[in-house]
Amino acid sequence: MLSGLTRRAEAVARRAVELEPMPQPPLRPTRYPVVLLHGFGALANLMQGGVLHAEAMHLRARGVWAYAPHVNPYDTVDVRAVSWADRLERVLDETGADRLNLVGFSTGGLDARALARDERWAGRFASLVTVSTPHRGSALAPFVLDRPERLRAWAIGVMEFVGRAAYESAPPHAEAALAELAPDVVVDRFPPDETVPDAWCASYAGRAGKGTDVPMYPPLVVPNRILHGLAGINDGIVPTDSGWWGERLGTLDADHARQIGLRWTASPAYDSLAFFEAHCDALRERGL
Question: What is any Pfam family matched here (predicted)?
Fold first, then answer.
């Protein structure tokens, strides 16, 4: 008979050294490569590997051809689209695929919509799904641009400084990029009911902070409150109602930063890795 102390010691040892027969996660590849397009702003470049890198690597560990390239986030849609086109061509060349699944986060969704209008990309997108993309703009953009000259110049200067530091070969044009996000400008250029032929078009919107019970990433508290007064419930950057386009897939209880893995604490309330993995499951179920 084993003593109680011995049994407890064995249980502790088992937890420490016991091996699972198949410890690796199952491979669940999608039919087409998945490309994650980041949005406006470069502060997330402080993350190792850059914006959405961890999410792409998480998907790769599950057999998905996943990519998270970068372009200068402080430039206009037209300029970013040219850079994205170069990145997407490289994905097609490397994988031998003839179509792509795009996931556009924030303004990355607008960039993807701009690309889809180019006849060179006709029929090459199997899906275009956006996450907290300002399809109806964000009132924060004109709010910043309407500040007194000294404050506005300071804000634009910070954006361009970060943009130059992160993307030396692609000089930023932050003020022009910000002006493009004004609600009337976005709706005029990207009608909310315009979708992409022969592609699954869908969207997720986000919510957090004021007016919700979802905690807010501290650096986004002030813009969240400003935007709530201008446009209601939002995720700190994009109004929830602005995020809808195509099929509505659901509302994410996460602020704009947490949606791409930036968080103040290790709260399990929202997991960006699990979100993108679940999205790939949905693509797989659709044969994409």
Answer: Abhydrolase_1
The Cα 13–Cα 9 span in angstroms is 6
Model confidence, pTM: 0.88
Angle at 204 between CA 201 and CA 207, to 5 degrees: 160
Q: Judge whether 8 lies within some domain.
A: no
- Count of domains forming the chain: 1
* Domain CATH for 225: 3.40.50.1820
Residue 9 placed within a domain: no
Choose between 145 and 163: higher pLDDT: 145
Neighbours of 259 (CB within 10 A): 27
Residue with tokens 């699944």: 101
- Burial code (b: 16+ CB inside 10 Å, e: under 16) for 183-202 equals beebeeebeeeebbeebbbb
| Domain boundaries, position 239 | 27-285
